[in-house]
Structure formats: C-alpha cells, structure tokens
Amino acid sequence: MPKKARWNRLVLRMKLVQLLRFLKQNYTYAQLADMLKESVTVLARYVCGEVLPSHGKASVLLPRVERVVRDIMVDMVKPGDDGFFDITRLLSEVTSRTAFTMWAIDRIAGTRVNKVLTAAVDGVPLAVSLSDALGVPVAVAKREREAGVRDFWTTVVEWPSGRVETLWLPKHLLRRREWVVIVDDIIRTGETLRALIRLVQYAGAKVAAALAFVGVKPYWRRAVEDLDAPVDVFMEVTAPT
Questions:
Q1: Cα(234)–Cα(17) distance, rounded to whole angstroms?
Q2: What φ, ψ does residue 166 adopt, rounded to 5°?
Q3: What are the average pLDDT values for consecutive 10-residue runs of the chain, which has 241 residues?
Q4: Could you tell me which residues are beta bridge partners of residue 170?
Q5: Residue 156 and residue 196: Cα distance in Å, rounded?
Q6: Which of 71, 95, 126, 237 would you label with 176, given CA atoms 20 to 30 Å apart?
Q7: C-alpha torsion sign, points 177, 117, 231, 95
Q8: Which domain holds residue 205?
Q9: What predicted TM-score, i.e. pTM, was given to this entire model?
Q10: The total number of structural domains that make up the chain
Q11: Residue 171, CB half-sphere, CA atoms under 13 Å: how many?
Q12: 142 and 65 share a domain?
C-alpha cells in the first residue's frame, strides 16, 4: 500500500478516537454503546488510548459517531437576544473543526482543489483546518487593506441593514484557473458568500464548492439558490421566530 494511503488510514482511525473522546464528555460508556452498537469494553479501550480501532472498524463507526457529534453541536448553538447565533465556542473546539473538515472532505471527494478561501475572521479556523487536511494553501479576504501589499482583488459586501463593507484579498493569493473551495462560518443572508464568489470570478479562478459550518433555516437555502456554485452546510439551526 502507498505511504500516503497508509497515512490517510491512520488519520481516519485517530480522528475516530478524537470524536469518541468528545462524546465521552457528554455520555456514559453504556449510552455510547447503545447509540453506536458497539461494546462498552471496546469503546473504553479506544477512548483510553489502549488500542487504535482498525481501519475497517473506524469506517463503520465514524458515520454513526459523526451523526451524534453533529446533534450535540446543534444543541450548543443558541440564538442571542439579538437573534444572531454565537458559534465562537464551537469554532474554538478542535473536535468541531475536525468534524467539519471530515465532512467537507467527503463533500468534495474527487474534486480538484488548489486553494481554500474564506473571509476574516470567524471562518479562518475552519478554512485553515480544511487547507491543512487537503495540503493546499489558504487565502483570507480581510475587511481592511494588508500593510505592505500593493495589489488587491476587492469587492463590496452590502448587508440588508444597509451597512457596507469592502473585502480585500491580495492578488498573489488567488490565481487564474485555480479551483477554490470557499469556507464560511455561517450562512443566513449569503452576502459574504456572494462576495467571496465574486473575488474568485475576478481572479479568473473557479469555485469548486462553497461550504459553511452553519446554515440558518429557513433563510440560507433561499439565499444561495441562484448562485452558480455547489453550496452545502455542515449543520442547520432554526432562526428564532
């Protein structure tokens, strides 16, 4: 087996252990055994680090574990008094970023990717995690000019409130004919996502996919339905009424 394939199998096994340890903070071994259809003894050995699951076992357990982890994360995302969702706690967690990255890799499997693009600041941890996993560079569009940089791709974000922002991306970070995965933290109106797609188009690059950590129902699907790019979200939350 090629060295890269062996490494990918090892990473898969280690990520399963990481997610199981996250679940153990919320459930007993007996509860986990019931949910995952696996014995308490086996799960305890994985969580305690006594043994790594085999690749075959990891392939079977991982989809089940991911579903449970996603349900926990959805419960952790609550709207504030202003109706907006605070996901900073999730973005700070390694487990959350790992779960998103694994999901994203599955969504873009078989797709050519040269670059990961996001907007500062909340999308950065997710974009870096994905770029590291893919082994490609990450580009960050910022809301102010980068000191020392002369040439930028720029676009304007117009919010429903009337607020206007400019996104600045150094031109050397995005090249013609590159295939780009756009990463966003949360989609509600889709304005940030639209702006990032415009930057990709200005550079003569192509959008391979646009992926977000959270989509706010019922708005996000309507907001992206006219975009000329495949868009998906890791998890959905419902806007307060």
A1: 20
A2: -110, 135
A3: 80 91 93 95 96 95 92 88 86 91 92 97 95 96 95 93 94 97 96 96 97 96 93 94 75
A4: 152
A5: 10
A6: 126
A7: positive
A8: 88-238
A9: 0.89
A10: 2
A11: 9
A12: no
